[in-house]
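#onboarding

Welcome to the new folks! Below is a worked example of what a typical request in this channel looks like: someone posts a single protein sequence, and someone else replies with the predicted structure as tokens. Don't worry about understanding the tokens yet, we'll cover that in week two.

Example request:
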Amino acid sequence: MDRGQQLSEFLKTRRARLSPDETGVGHFGGQRRVPGLRREELALLAGVSVDYYTRLEQGRARNVSADVLDAVASALRLDVDERAYLHNLAKPSTTRKRPSRPQQVRPEMCQALEALSTVPAYIIGRRLDVLAWNELARLLIADFPALPAAERNMARLVFLDEAAHDLYPDWEAKARDTVANLRFDAGRHPDDPQLATLVGELSLHSADFRRLWADHGVRGKTHGRKRFAHPQLGELALDYVAMRAPDDPDLTMMIYSAPNGSDATASLHLLASFTAASSATTGPQAQHSR
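Example response:
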């Protein structure tokens, strides 16, 4: 994916979210032909020249300072994830990158998955690839072992598997979060050819993905709540937390749990009983991304 084009489209969509009234800038003369702020108004808020901001938005600015990027981010009212995304695109690393190696899940992380025997948990890597999972995650989210390795990917499951619409009652919110997570990953690895291939495939086969990708939403995985509709358990709302590996920021363990005393707690206990009764239980399973 072209880094300059990504930067240009991101800045345009963020600028379109703002209006002169909410930002307090004076209106420039003439009829307004675009939604949101004009470049002149954004440049005024950021304290940079119109010419410089125009070159930045067009992806033509070179050696942009961190201070300028922070000023633009503040003017655009970017959140923490969006600000990081802007810096990643506008100030790419100058170090020579080695060819991407397959990600590996350390044995200690697999042990942690095995220890989480009463809650669903899985590990995702670059491009939202699902690299390892425990049995409760398999029973709740997807039968990962039955999928070809290339299809063990959360974005593919959400947009290309019709079962996702049944699994997630709030499918639109889940889809929007998934795209924002993928966009965040794209900011960290804008030159990843496998990521470009994935985005191209999803864009080709899913109109919903094309629509949401064009919004340029950016969000890293942190914590939140998701609703699931399980065929045996019914609907349950689970809280999730994303725990990033300290030695590899591209590996994240997703852990789902239920508030004490909630109906979802009883549902998870029942799901765990399914696991205990399953003769196919072999502990956490893992595969290496390609």
